[in-house]
From TrEMBL:
Protein name per Swiss-Prot or TrEMBL: ABC transporter
Family: Belongs to the ABC transporter superfamily. Macrolide exporter (TC 3.A.1.122) family.
InterPro entries, A to Z: AAA+_ATPase, ABC_transporter-like_ATP-bd, ABC_transporter-like_CS, ABC_transpr_LolD-like, MacB-like_ATP-bd, P-loop_NTPase
Family annotation (CDD domains): ABC_MJ0796_LolCDE_FtsE
Length: 226
């Protein structure tokens, strides 16, 4: 059975051919098995966000192959990449980016409606997710009425709303205080395992990384053993 995510010889250079050329990724090879949670650690500026964007089809590598759920996405057009990204990949960022004018529940419903899920089904799925992460009673509140930890939990639910097979997270608790970060991260790990997802989670926190199935390090543009 193929891996959920497979990156082969991924290279990315910014300002190519110019005096300030930067080789961000220099032949990255990385796989995430089905149901596996992989931690990605890296020094600041090492290119982890670039790597996650390429893995999630938000950016294109200069060379290399990206496969998601066994499908080679290399050279695919925008329509195909968007369809895969919408249905097969969930994203979580350091800042929640919730839509401020909508309730927590609506923030989790809307991505499903954009994916043609019937409204009743979308509402039930959203409410179930919010209850799983402990904010079901806050479903009718807008983001401004939620704590930072609650907002990030809602963001987790939004990322999982369309039942993606792959979750990509870039410092998902990085803007929270240490105590809240640990609690919210445990919630994330619980729901990822409960949903049976594959996940690639970037974090600076080695204690959080140790809770994952495997940890890799991005250094000098390549994946190195930890």
């Amino acid at each position: 059975m193929s891996d959920m995510l497979s990156l082969n010889q991924i290279r990315k250079t910014y300002n190519a051919g110019k005096p300030n050329e930067v080789d961000v990724l220099r032949g990255v090879d990385l796989t995430v098995a089905r149901g596996e949670i992989v931690g990605l650690i890296a020094p600041s500026g090492a290119g982890k966000s670039t790597l996650l964007h390429i893995a999630g089809l938000l950016d294109l590598p200069d060379t290399g192959t990206v496969r998601i759920n066994g499908q080679d996405m290399t050279g695919q057009g925008d329509k195909t990449r968007t369809a895969m990204r919408r249905a097969g990949v969930g994203f979580i960022y350091q800042f929640h980016h919730l839509l401020p004018e909508f309730t927590a529940l609506d923030n989790v419903i809307l991505p499903q409606l954009a994916n043609a899920v019937p409204e009743r089904e979308a509402r039930d799925r959203a409410m179930n997710l919010l209850e799983k992460v402990g904010v079901g009673k806050r479903a009718s509140h807008r983001p401004s009425a939620l704590s930072g930890g609650e907002q990030q939990r809602v963001a987790f639910c939004r990322a999982l709303a369309n039942k993606p097979g792959l979750l990509l997270a870039d410092e998902p608790t990085g803007n929270l205080d240490p105590t809240t970060s640990a609690l919210v991260f445990d919630v994330l790990m619980g729901i990822v395992r409960d949903e049976g997802l594959s996940a690639l989670i970037a974090t600076h926190n080695l204690e959080l990384a140790a809770k994952m199935d495997r940890v890799v390090r991005l250094e000098d543009g390549q994946i190195v053993p930890v």
